């Protein structure tokens, strides 16, 4: 991903003048957006290894309830959560009705919903520069997400390759979910992309890694204590803990309704509405009488609740459903045939990385 606004460059293949007047970021290539790459399996493993080397190390035991996270664990969680968010924000711009957006290697950093992602890309960009002649921006970002998910203890997700990059993405503006809204909004946003409610609940479990930062969201805090670990804590925290409606007010973000547990963990309206019956968009912390669904308590959110309960009980089932939904997300907007990486016997296009690492 390159921020190429007002930017000129030359390549050794000939002089290429690149003048960009809009603050659109491209994930790095100076090639035609209509060209796709065929990655070899060796290239895939090399890229994964270089991305793993960027992940901060964090020793220490799995945190129990109330234990304080270490600075190293927080740094690891920030990076892993940021990379997952980067992939989500690229793929989730897809509109099934309009047939545009999706996992196309294009983001606009000026969109307030993308705050904080520029820094994540700046950490990834040195690795991508070593592979930009053989890997599309969208493929690289997709690879980065499945690499950090696995490194955090999540499922080992295998994805196809050959994504084609877009040269602009103006239509993506405003397509991201609102933090203030609730279940009906979740259903609408995910339906726009072609996801079922079950897939939506599975994908939202990715909130188990990383945290909200005040400078990016107007809120501060993680969804689970072990914000550096990819597990099903998001679901059982949602069901097992007592949540209190709060409103954070900042000059930049205005009022941000959310749900607080003991000033340690938070849930957004879009999260808690999956398992609790709430009044979705009201900023008054004393408004309404929220109650958890399930058992004898039937409510409008019963359909999503049953998936939350299932994933809280079985991490294995969540991993399976999440993997399927994540592969689908990373393929949105790609009209061509995506294929598994090629074995060395199938391709002679790749020698040693040192051939292009010095460009």
Automatic annotation (TrEMBL):
Residues 350-359 have a biased composition (Basic and acidic residues). One of its GO terms (molecular function) is heme binding. Keywords: Heme, Iron, Metal-binding, Oxidoreductase, Peroxidase. SUPFAM superfamilies: Heme-dependent peroxidases (SSF48113). It comes from the Eukaryota. One of its GO terms (biological process) is hydrogen peroxide catabolic process. Its cofactor is heme b. Belongs to the peroxidase family. Ascorbate peroxidase subfamily. This is L-ascorbate peroxidase. It comes from Cymbomonas tetramitiformis.
């Amino acid at each position: 991903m390159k921020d190429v606004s007002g930017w000129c460059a030359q390549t050794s293949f000939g002089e290429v003048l690149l003048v960009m007047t809009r603050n659109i970021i491209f994930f790095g290539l100076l090639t035609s957006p209509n060209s796709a790459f065929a990655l070899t399996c060796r290239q895939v493993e090399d890229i994964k290894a270089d991305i793993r080397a960027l992940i901060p190390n964090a020793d220490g035991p799995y945190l129990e309830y109330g234990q304080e996270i270490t600075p190293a664990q927080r740094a690891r969680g920030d990076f892993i959560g940021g990379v997952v968010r980067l992939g989500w924000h690229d793929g989730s711009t897809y509109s099934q009705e309009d047939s545009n957006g999706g996992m196309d290697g294009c983001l606009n950093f000026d969109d307030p919903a993308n705050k904080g992602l520029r820094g994540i890309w700046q950490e990834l960009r040195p690795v991508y520069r070593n592979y930009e002649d053989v890997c599309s921006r969208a493929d690289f970002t997709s690879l980065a997400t499945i690499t950090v998910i696995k490194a955090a203890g999540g499922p080992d997700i295998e994805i196809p390759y050959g994504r084609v990059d877009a040269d602009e993405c103006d239509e993506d503006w405003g397509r991201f979910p609102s933090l203030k809204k609730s279940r009906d909004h979740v259903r609408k946003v995910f339906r726009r992309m072609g996801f079922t409610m079950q897939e939506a609940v599975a994908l939202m479990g990715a909130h188990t890694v990383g945290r909200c930062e005040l400078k990016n969201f107007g809120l501060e805090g993680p969804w689970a204590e072990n914000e550096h670990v990819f597990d099903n804590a998001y679901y059982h925290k949602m069901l097992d803990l007592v949540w209190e409606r709060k409103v954070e007010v900042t000059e930049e973000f205005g009022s941000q309704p959310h749900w607080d547990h003991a000033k340690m963990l938070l849930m957004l309206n879009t999260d808690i509405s999956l398992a609790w019956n709430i009044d979705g968009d009201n900023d008054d912390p004393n408004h309404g009488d929220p109650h958890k669904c399930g058992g004898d308590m039937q409510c409008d959110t019963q359909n999503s609740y049953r998936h939350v309960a299932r994933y809280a009980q079985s991490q294995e089932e969540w991993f399976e459903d999440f993997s399927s939904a994540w592969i689908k997300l990373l393929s949105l907007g790609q009209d061509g045939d995506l294929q598994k990486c090629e074995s060395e016997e199938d391709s002679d296009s790749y020698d040693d990385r040192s051939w292009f690492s010095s460009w």
